[in-house]
Specification:
Length: about 160
């Protein structure tokens, strides 16, 4: 669970300025996700592309560290496509309660994952960045065990290498 400093400066190189890239979200028939868009921290590269610098809670298609392209609409930068994959995975977690959130999050952090946390109403949620150096099969086994114990549900938003 990272603070503002990490979001602004964590992955960035000195020649990259902070930006927010907006992902437009499509709601399903039950109204999920609960928002029409999500702004994700990124750093603008000299070539005009952006490196995603945190894990989206709702957007799909890009993981932390991916290089993306965005079009300008007024003051907004709208995500258009992934230019280069980082090799990281993005997994969205929906916990049964706060205790499950703390315990599973601690385990993922110990493995080297990075988390962005939030809530949808009373439900604790997290977006887990699984860096390519972390064995994804181990992460999936931990998550599957937690699902079996009814501690969480998860969604694989970006799989490693895709």
């Amino acid at each position: 669970m990272r603070g503002l400093w990490w979001r602004l400066f964590g992955r960035a190189k000195p020649d990259m300025k902070p930006a927010k890239v907006r992902f437009l979200l499509e709601r399903d028939d039950i109204g999920y996700p609960p928002f029409e868009n999500e702004d994700v921290w990124a750093r603008e590269r000299p070539d005009g592309r952006f490196v995603i610098d945190n894990s989206p809670l709702f957007a799909t298609g890009a993981a932390c560290g991916d290089v993306v392209e965005a079009r300008r609409e007024g003051a907004d930068l709208i995500f258009t496509r992934v230019h280069e994959r980082s090799g990281n995975a993005l997994v969205r977690l929906f916990f049964s309660d706060d205790r499950a959130a703390v315990e599973v999050s601690r385990t993922l952090l110990e493995l080297g994952c990075e988390l962005e946390t939030g809530r949808i109403g009373e439900v604790p949620v997290a977006a887990a960045n699984v860096p390519k150096r972390v064995d994804y099969a181990t992460v999936r086994a931990i998550l599957d065990e937690a699902v079996g114990a009814e501690r969480l549900h998860y969604e694989e938003a970006v799989l490693p290498g895709r």
